[in-house]
Amino acid sequence: MSAEAQQQQQRSGSRLVAVGTALPDKVLTNADFEVMMDTSDEWIRSRTGIAERRVGGTTTGLAVEAARRALERSGVAAESIGLVVTATQTPDDLCPSTAAGVQDALGLICAAFDLNAACAGFSYGLVVAHSMLLSGAATAALVVGVDRMTAATNYDDRSTAILFGDGAGAVVLTSEPDGDRGIRAWDTGTDGSHADILASPIRDGRITGVEMNGKVLFKHMVRYAVDSARAAVERAGLELDDVVAVLAHQANQRILDAVADRLGVDHDRVISIIEHTGNTSAASVPLALDAAVADGRVGPGDPILLLGFGGGLSWASTVAVWG
Ligand code: UT7
């Protein structure tokens, strides 16, 4: 990235004003999996950090609920929202988009579209909405990350079935080009050469479930995530010590720990919610953000790092000053 582009990133803010989330009511515990397949609570907890996940609902229903909460908390008028970007790899239908469902349910008058960058989708959505706000396309936007991963899970494969849950998270972004708050820098990337280690194929028109070589994926993902996080923090003109919380994709507790170790940040600054949600793909970063805001670990004026990574392989990091 050129020095000019880097300076432009640091100058340009779009504020993250509020976050809202939605989780289905139904809980699927590790004990439930012990009945369904040859596995154990001990194996799942020790390999992944997951104890339970929420399952059910519809992608559009979860997206609408999260977006409505974020909008209510933001105090931004519905009439001001000019853009809805929804990140998902599990839409209810290919058309109309999930974003169109959000636009309609909330009575918005705006542009709306979906994007798919798998588990990095919400973080990509932030960069896309930020860029559109800066271009003048809108003055306020909703960015939603939502996935119904359990609808795309193969319950005959114990190595992947135990990982996933459903959920949604949304933030309201407002345009603030010269303010102290908001998005300060970002980094995005993709390496499409690894379809053999993580894929969710469609065969004869049917979604067959996630296919993953977990061990190989683990190594690549940690490396890409850490490099991307460092690039974004540097472009923001900050040090990792300045970042109060890392909101990283919740794929596996061991990945969160490895990311913390390689970034050299305390484990408690890498927010973890995976114990009670599992891997919710595009929803996991805003779900982690919501938890950290709710318990005060992230407050107004705090620098944060939002770090999405997953299928593609794709990754996206955003450094922002919250609130
Ligand atoms: O969201 C996108 C990003 N996702 C990731 O980056 C995921 C990264 N990878 C991982 O999270 C881990 O690799 C997994 C949690 C998926 C798997 O952990 P692992 O330590 O890599 O296990 P493994 O797949 O190498 O399997 C080890 C053993 C095998 O048995 P043998 O061959 O050693 O006898 C598996 O058959 O564990 C067995 N196993 C299970 N045992 C009990 C696999 N799944 C289960 C299970 N319960 N659910």
Question: What are the SSEs and their pairings?
Answer:
Layout: H1 3-11, E1 14-22, E2 27-29, H2 30-36, H3 41-48, E3 52-54, H4 59-74, E4 83-87, H5 98-105, E5 111-115, H6 121-135, E6 140-148, H7 158-161, E7 166-175, E8 182-190, E9 198-199, E10 202-203, E11 206-207, E12 211-212, H8 214-235, E13 245-248, H9 253-263, H10 274-277, H11 284-294, E14 303-310, E15 314-321
Parallel strand pairs: 4-5, 4-6, 13-14
Antiparallel strand pairs: 1-7, 2-3, 6-7, 8-15, 9-12, 10-11, 14-15
Helix pairs in contact: 4-5, 8-9
The chain binds oxa(dethia)-CoA (UT7).
Molecular structure report:
By secondary structure, the protein is an alpha+beta fold. 36% of the residues lie in helices and 25% in strands. It folds into two domains: 3-175, 3-Layer(aba) Sandwich (Peroxisomal Thiolase, Chain A, domain 1), CATH 3.40.47.10; 182-321, Peroxisomal Thiolase, Chain A, domain 1 (3-Layer(aba) Sandwich). The protein is built from eleven helices and 15 strands. The strands form five sheets. The chain has a five-stranded mixed sheet, sandwiched between helices. The longest helix has 22 residues, at 214-235. It binds oxa(dethia)-CoA. Oxa(dethia)-CoA is lined by residues 39, 43, 47-48, 119, 158-159, 162, 214-215, 217-218, 221, 251-252, 255, 279, 310.
